[in-house]
Design goal:
This protein has about 190 residues and is α+β, with helices and mostly antiparallel strands. Helix content is about 50%, strand content about 15%. Strands 1-4-3-2 form a 4-stranded antiparallel sheet, sandwiched between helices. The structure holds heme C.
């Protein structure tokens, strides 16, 4: 016996598949736009501060402002966003379970030769209720990052980091390594 899906039903299935992949593409584009926004804002704020006042002042600034900047970007784009890594400086940036899985995969890809900033993850399947999309994007360690995340830090920098982040684990990186990732969650119906 041949199983036949009625034409109208088949059309509905095709339409809903199309719609859900269009919704995914739209959410992923929103996530990426928010990441670009946050990345640009953090970078320009940090670099301006390092240049004007040096890395120690920039650490204080990062401690006070990085979470606020992320919260502003989240509100502006109507989603949740942040930065994380397998080794973090702030305990507030420690990865959630799903983020740790993606970070481990990014790390494998980076070690196999992919440029960290080109790594992307996006999923809209099998997510907890209320979440339409999860997105992550790799962050590379660049030369200016080494002053605060490198293998050897100037003593005043190390002291300032220790003062704000007694559990800091985000040093020892080399240029070109994966430093961490941006993450985004988009809610459904949003
Ligand atoms: C002046 C010191 C300084 C420099 C330079 C610096 N960072 Fe950081 N970084 C920090 C501080 C402080 C935090 C913790 C911010 C917070 O409290 O959320 C941080 C946090 C992070 C985090 C979030 C995860 C974590 O470890 O808590 C990432 C990712 C990160 N930095 C990447 C970079 C990259 C990439 C660069 C270079 C483009 C860079 N940083 C340059 C001081 C610095």
């Amino acid at each position: 016996m041949k199983f036949k899906i009625p034409d109208r039903r088949r059309l509905l299935i095709a339409a809903s598949l199309l719609l859900s992949s269009a919704a995914h593409a739209d959410d992923a584009a929103r996530a990426q736009a928010a990441v670009t926004d946050l990345g640009t804002q953090l970078r320009s704020a940090l670099m301006a501060r390092v240049k004007a006042e040096g890395p120690v002042a920039a650490i204080n600034f990062c401690h006070d402002q990085a979470p606020t900047i992320a919260a502003d970007v989240a509100q502006k784009h109507g989603l949740r966003i942040g930065r994380t890594g397998l080794r973090t400086r702030s305990p507030g940036n420690a990865p959630a379970d799903w983020q740790r899985v993606v970070l481990a995969d990014f790390e494998t890809q980076a070690q196999a030769g992919s440029a960290p900033q080109t790594l992307r993850y996006s999923s809209s399947e099998g997510l907890p209720e209320g979440i339409a999309l999860r997105y992550m994007q790799g962050i590379a360690t660049e030369a200016p990052c080494l002053a605060c995340h490198g293998q050897t830090l100037a003593e005043p920098v190390a002291l300032a980091i220790k003062a704000h982040y007694p559990e800091d684990a985000a040093t020892g990186f080399r240029e070109g390594q994966l430093r961490g990732a941006f993450w985004v969650e988009v809610s459904s119906g949003n």
